[in-house]
């Protein structure tokens, strides 16, 4: 149960609605004596912040995180870390007309079907606003990973596809990711996407995307077969992100197409340690990390919050047309990059701690 | 923690190694007074059984399940159901030469890295043999679903791709699934696969596959946002199956390519109830079932147990070549169909019960 | 793991230190469409509030609870309820001299041993201040119980012993509980305790107590054998309350002294339903509620925060004497009464929901 | 949920009914490379075995445990350990007459109320037979404790009260515990109990008891505040044992009677490490172990399976008299000693591993 919590040893619980007074989370199980401050967390929140380009929602929120517990004199104490962000720019009136109408492709109908009530303002609990707290939890997780794995470890994310346009992997440049508004590792793709998304926005529609997250410096041995496999937990983690419809590890669906003698990553010795000659597996074998980079991709569907009228029904059983007028991203996948990074951090921190429990650190 | 358990309200725990004396599982939380017998479970085990065609392993096991607890006079009692299958055809000597060698693409290396010890016989705990117990648990889950949802509910699975060869969805015929050794819904595809897999087998290699599982008659309202979403739990469930590298819900990765005005499933009224005009979402919106068919697909990589020699290393750091001589499926994806069905059943039973806890039944 | 959460289906997670900026909790799994407001919760917090008589700490805190999520237009929505109370009267300077000294009988030493760091201000996380959030969660649990069980259900608590002085059960009067500052059901005992505690306070010491919580109107059938037994969860719940050293169900330790033919509660029919002729079992048989009142008692040790100097050591290994000068209750057991009631409510709400999951409601 | 599992990091799940074909358990999360064999577990099962004196049930069962998984070449592999004991001496006919009658003081009525069905043979799932699997799980837990804590660590249990007769603590001799059929640390008490229980048995009644379990060599720092406190988990553990009605840590209920300046355990330095001058707290402060012996006591009510006729009702609403003819212990508390030891071992192993996850080992 406990459906608003994620993780076992490193566990966070989020609360809050898009247009309530605040959103927050509790991070439980954090190891003691890790240095952490509000700016450390704010840094990652700012990367996810909306309103940074014309391709993300113009909703302006400072999103100032406050640490309310679990940190004393700049260090974690081992007790739960309470984090909160006040909601300051809510403009609830924008949403009045969807009070009783179900936006197609949204969770409006299913929340109503499940609970018989919903906070319709801005999507309430189903809003991607909740992901801000994942980014905050992820910032805490990175402290755990940094303390236990050191500088060789890092997580990076990139957008690898927008609508039908994929990056050219031959152009991959991690430095480029920080230089364009799409987290694109391919400068040319970023230019293509600019034109494409301008057209999408003008046409009153939206576009999907694919995000790739890579963790390097992950030690071999993380993951708990058979129902706490590292890849299973990563799949669950990414699939909880709003609008995600597919998850891949390593080659993913392409693995179904290649023959077995190609698919298996061969091994050789490099000095006194084994190395893999390829990484089709995406760093996970039998649910346990192999020491190679852990590679996850996920597909984000185009948002249904669009200006084009769509057919729907309302709570009273009337057939209606729905247009979503609020401020929305033409491609919500862009802002999913820091969220995916955060979820990767949380899953790895959790498994690092679970591994220590069973096998020692 | 508890890495060998799956589910919350309907929860099963499996144990056992490929070549140990037995494998088993405990199904906990089963509602009382459901009629169940060993043949009810055996029926589904027989569908998964190896050795049924030349495309699955020739290992011959009767796989006779025994119910050791939780059932009294033909009915569940609400207490945990203990199930066990004895391992009778183990031929451990087949595996002697991989005692210290890491088979590329297998979990041999990662188990060793994690635990410092492994039961190498037949892959030990990492063997797909463990999935027999999932099928058994799934048979119990189906009893829960039948009791609470009635006959309108059913789960069906099909193989939709082998290697690069996909089914033609215009030919889809659920009846055909039971008539060919591949669970193919497309007769023509089954023929193509026959020739393809014969070639694969002769070449000493193996092929991947994609499996699709569809649940119809699922009521709207199942799934617990935001970290117990129905699609997230399904993704986790499928990703725990051996060799799975990708999971999709509804349109999956294709959803990233279509525009927003196409992606959202529109709604109209049909008499006094809302209906959807398409099912891009695969029956899940905001992590909650919409009442439409729940559609999941997963990609299975080609098995690494092949006759073609591959480069690897051994425990002592020597570079070696590995050939896997045992009896292995050229396409392990085929036998993943009943396993995927079982996991779908377990996830749905779990969420049906969780929904009853919070929202009443 | 998740050590700061309690419950499965009805689950709350608390965070916050005694002298941090705020304390809070998240209540997850709450059924939708229950009417609830801040005053509903405040009512129970006010019962626990310190400073109400000379027998409880003079720390003055308004303890104003705010609902930050999960409630919309006066009703629960099924999403997590975020609750927060700001800490407004902290006087940290009172605690400066125990920064490095371990107060005997307190958690100072063990927190230091476990975490290597502690927020020493007011006991930090180990302070009974955390119990305010249990009372808040308990107020939410009562809404669940009221909605599902109706008016026949209620929980009441009483103090039945202070130091060596027990109530006379022949004088038991539930109405009296609300009329004296001790929650005593026996007017005479309250008078005895007044004199006794005045002496204790003057002598610079403190006194222990025993609390009894009774839930009436609990239906038969709640509790999950064998490791989620109702009495086991109640014992765990009460033992998590600060300073509790013992828990009893029904006759408790006295059950060890009576013969078997007396101990078993006999049954007869009353009209068409079975009734018990006694309640030695305290309403629980085999871990499942019997329909009789559920009776729990717990022992609270005398607080170690006393003016009498006690021998101890400090972080640097020096032998020191410790006197606790802050504002402290001479008998912390008094304020444990509303906390025990709240924990009873949370356990019962949880089991009511768990029962609905497995057996239907 | 998962009511038949106990523990988080070290987690066991039991299954089986008193008169089903077998009982068993799965121990999950066990660290790898611990030496373990069937005789290691059998040793503890034999200590609990019935039929060893005239004071325990004459049911004769060899109770041969089999290890079915998780152990390879004499060592744990980190995968789940499946254990099973066949039921060989069931004599179901003894119980025919209680098929529809509710034995007073038993779980017959509450299982029926909860599940609407019950396996009445020998009490089914509510039988103390389930505790055999706890003893087996406890034997595994001891291996974890031995590997991580070494020889200074040990757990010992004793019976400290039978009916109204307590041991004289001045006579306490741990060696005596192994020399009498009661696990009494006081030779004189054992003699008193012999006469007392003979009388009880002849009178067709039964007697309660109090068990004390002591763990020495527990390091400071185990336990997870605030809802996974070491004492809270111990209370839950002991309260799940059949017929237990009360649990105490350290002074327990007596702590309510002594003044605060006596209750707090003072500290001094002994060389370079802090020592406590008393152990009123029973080795736990603020829910965390202090490094002192962990002391738990629990009260076992007299069994209701007695020859004296008691008034009850049956399933059809008839008033009946019930006499329990089977083979039953006059004092079930005696056999609870090894069970309590086992639960102590499981709780400590779990917390040792949880501590390693958060704080490192």
From TrEMBL, chains A, B, C, D:
Reduced FMN (FMNH(2)). It comes from Nisaea acidiphila. This is Chorismate synthase. It comes from the Bacteria. InterPro entries: Chorismate_synth, Chorismate_synth_AroC_sf, Chorismate_synthase_CS. Belongs to the chorismate synthase family. HAMAP family: Chorismate_synth. One of its GO terms (cellular component) is cytosol. Homotetramer. FMN binds at residues 125-127, 242-243, 286, 301-305, 327. GO terms for molecular function: chorismate synthase activity; FMN binding. The gene is aroC. Its EC number is 4.2.3.5. Keywords: Amino-acid biosynthesis, Aromatic amino acid biosynthesis, FAD, Flavoprotein, FMN, Lyase, NADP. It holds the Pfam family Chorismate_synt. GO terms for biological process: amino acid biosynthetic process; aromatic amino acid family biosynthetic process; chorismate biosynthetic process. This reaction introduces a second double bond into the aromatic ring system. NADP(+) binds at residues 48, 54.
